[in-house]
Amino acid sequence: MNRETLSSPAARPIQGWPAFYVREAVLDEEIEQALALRRAVFCEEQGIFEGSDRDAIDLHARLLIAAGSQLGSSPSSVLGTVRIHEASPGLWWGSRLAVQRTMRRQAKLGAQLIRLAVCTAHGLGCETFLAHVQVQNVPLFEKLHWRSLDTSLAHGREHHLMQADLAHYPPCHDPLMGFFVDAGVQP
Ligand SMILES: CC(C)(COP(=O)(O)OP(=O)(O)OC[C@H]1O[C@@H](n2cnc3c(N)ncnc32)[C@H](O)[C@@H]1OP(=O)(O)O)[C@@H](O)C(=O)NCCC(=O)NCCS
Fold this sequence. Notes:
- By secondary structure, the chain is of the alpha+beta class.
- It contains 3 helices and 11 strands.
- Helix content is 21%, strand content 35%.
- The chain is globular.
- Coenzyme A binds next to strand 6, helix 2, strand 7 and helix 3.
- This is Histone acetyltransferase.
- It comes from Curvibacter microcysteis.
């Protein structure tokens, strides 16, 4: 496993903070939880979709999650999710990035999901990785080495078409194991 922490050498553990795994969803239960989280965020919280946010892309997308358990362990709550798909050879898209409300800006789950999304695609031959990013999240993506290519209005909201700089996202060949995120360590 590629064990990654968010720590610096002088990192200090924070009592009570758990560790997370950011990896591909495998079990039916975690896939259902990820889809439920998407529904809660994109239908109920943001009101972008009515009833369901699922579409044809889900039929061939890979679903990534942030969860408290490693692959093969008993399932635990899914706290974040994102999906990736290849639209044409070498061209990959990320979409439906969502972190549970109470976990936002707490453990960098969003950043780690973005990282696994792009690194996984890179490992699968991605040459260009794009996403339509809601305008309020553009600074987050810029911080993570994405650049804005264009703006548009989608689902009544301003979005930026953004591209990841693959040089900052080394290929990940094992998304089922993914990354270990030690949220109990504070730089
Ligand atoms: C966008 C989202 C996934 C980010 O997840 P998160 O777990 O809160 O983000 P992280 O904690 O990984 O943030 C990483 C860094 O970006 C910063 N950041 C997060 N969201 C930000 C924002 N909207 N604007 C500016 N900075 C932001 C964090 O403060 C953190 O900064 P630091 O590294 O200096 O500490 C989450 O806010 C969310 O689920 N939003 C609702 C759904 C949504 O908007 N989806 C995205 C559609 S494009």
